[in-house]
Amino acid sequence: MEIGNINSPDDILNFLNCNIKYGWIGVDGSVHENNMDNFRLLYRTSNLKDVLKTGLGTCIEQAFLTKYLLDKINIPSKMFCTRMYEDESFNDLNAPERMHCFILFYIEDKVFRLEHADIENAGIYSYNSEEEAIKTIVSHYEKMTAISYLKNNKEVPVNGFKRTTTEFFDVPSNLSYMEFNIYVNNLDKKKVRK
User: Fold this and answer.
1) Is residue 63 within 8 Å of residue 102, measured between CB atoms?
2) pLDDT digits over 47-82, tens only?
3) CA atoms of 95 and 115, how far apart (whole Å)
């Protein structure tokens, strides 16, 4: 399927299934498909042109690509980042990644999630409201993080597994994981100042 043939959210999911895999290219040129090895050290955000060329994108790029495709067919949407909060001083390059970016779209009075990056939960889901969607999605990732910590005998973080969720509007190119996290944190700070 080609971008020009996309006319619906189902077409977008089909396009992603056929053309995009979960992955990224490290700053050292290494290809990482379905793994997070050295993610905090080597990852940099990719622009949409590179995602389409390589066929690789993390949840960050896949949310951005999905928004772009929804915009092309005039379906309103929003991108969100849910994560365990890390401030600007957090720099443990061996810490697990505790972030997921997702997209919600809106048709009539319904809210939908189009998920592709989380392979086990790929699909289109419907909710009665944006609040219900966000609460359901965040709760899922809090549980997944807790399971991962307990399974790997890691110390439970001070704040437990609570997540911060922020709407974001762009994915600047060439940001490290830490820089993207700071970018999203700053969106929260701007919202508080308003």
Assistant:
1) yes
2) 999 999 999 999 999 999 999 999 999 999 999 999
3) 25
